[in-house]
């Protein structure tokens, strides 16, 4: 899967590291190196399709400003669109992120169940854990983190690598 994503900054990576001891009991735990914040998935199955989709996404991003983002809460997907449940995540608040997402969806279309009105900006911590582990994560008190998003990245999830970046404002 290819996507347009927000690079996860050091302040969020540190927060993920802070949560790590609480994730005991989950079958799959995301590390700080594999953390992502997807803005929009791209309709591309291979490199050639990616190049077309990336051109379209860059065109759709023209004029997109930099924006602030904040994490102050933990969320849970009890019934995620795909994969095992539950999924615990860091909830991202950002009107600017929503605006960029809407702009990309308007130009590129939406993935049903994941994008448009169904979009939930988040950074996944772990999935498939028992209820007591979910509650332990949900109840953890932490200091909110805020940062300015001044670039987006085109990301290849299969290879877990950044392909290229787009500075904001675009």
Automatic annotation (TrEMBL):
Any Pfam family hit: 2_5_RNA_ligase2
Superkingdom in the source lineage: Archaea
Protein name from the UniProt record: 2'-5' RNA ligase
